[in-house]
Amino acid sequence: METLLLDSNTWLLVLTGAGVSAESGVPTFRGMNGLWEDQPVTEVASPQGFAKDPLRVWRFYSQRRAGAADVSPNPGHDALVAWERHLGDRFLLATQNVDGLHRRAGSQRVVEMHGNLFTSRCSNPDCTRAPFPDTTVYASGTVPGCKECGALLRPHIVWFGEHLDPDDLTRIESFAVKAVRSGGRLVFLAAGTSGAVYPAAGMVDNVRAAGGETWLVNLDASENASSFEHFVQGKSGEVLPKLGRLV
Ligand code: OAD
Predict the structure, then answer these.
(1) How confident is the model at residue 30 (pLDDT cuts 50, 70, 90)?
(2) Could you identify the atom of ligand 1 that is nearest to the CA of residue 113?
(3) What pLDDT digit, counting tens, does each position of 39-51 carry?
(4) Is 114 among the residues known to form the active site?
(5) Which of 142, 182, 223, 237 could bond 23 through an S-S bridge, CB–CB 3.0 to 4.6 Å?
(6) Whole-structure pTM value
(7) Where are the alpha helices (DSSP H) in 159-216?
(8) What is the mean pLDDT of residues 16-40?
(9) Does ligand 1 lie within 6 Å of residue 239's CB atom?
(10) Which domains, and CATH codes, for the chain?
(11) What's the CA gap between 114 and 61, in Å, rounded?
């Protein structure tokens, strides 16, 4: 198997997707038994779906909260923690996962691009209440309300048709810019993601355009696999612990 050299000149930007949590028992979105297989995305993960049937949306996210609370990080998460400890500020983890497992494993430099399953916020854009931690699994038949303005609460998740937080995108871009400006070796590694959802799926092209090196660790050839220079096929929990050569 190829190895990825992580030395004092390396700046590593990692992108993870649902596949990284699969070995922890969290279902992925696409493919066999994927969450979107029997759950229309537009009904449970869009502002329109929420406006139409907030109960259904909360039932879906409450089930996911219950499922994600019971699982633990796997060796793939742990490998990323070890890489971050080795590289320090020359490491950044951008994740599309909302399950919180990277932080639970010990990752600190994390950008949760698609939000967090255990955070809720008021659905009223004019309400001043900030997003807040919320582990509640709402009983079916309950749609929680905001205690400040009375509007419905919603999960703090980026739904289809919504924009990512511009601060998150800036943090990722700045990391790559800093790596290039410092004359370092910029490496981008994507793991456990189908490359189907933008802007995350476009990160590989941006890094290549900036002169960076690109790696993919995935069970199957993802939709954008041909954009990567290195493809290590396999389970992230098995590949990542063996991939990094820390010097
Ligand atoms: P997907 O379900 O689309 O893709 C998961 C990928 O992980 C697939 O390519 C699998 O082959 C791969 N995979 C499965 N098990 C693996 C393992 N043990 N090790 C390595 N790879 C494995 O999930 P994402 O790409 O994360 O958005 O999906 C992107 C976004 O689409 C999600 O964040 C979500 C979804 O709609 C929102 O909810 C906003």
Answers:
(1) confident
(2) 33
(3) 788 889 999 999 9
(4) yes
(5) 237
(6) 0.96
(7) 166-181, 203-209
(8) 87
(9) no
(10) 4-26+72-114+164-246 (3.40.50.1220), 35-70+119-157 (3.30.1600.10)
(11) 14
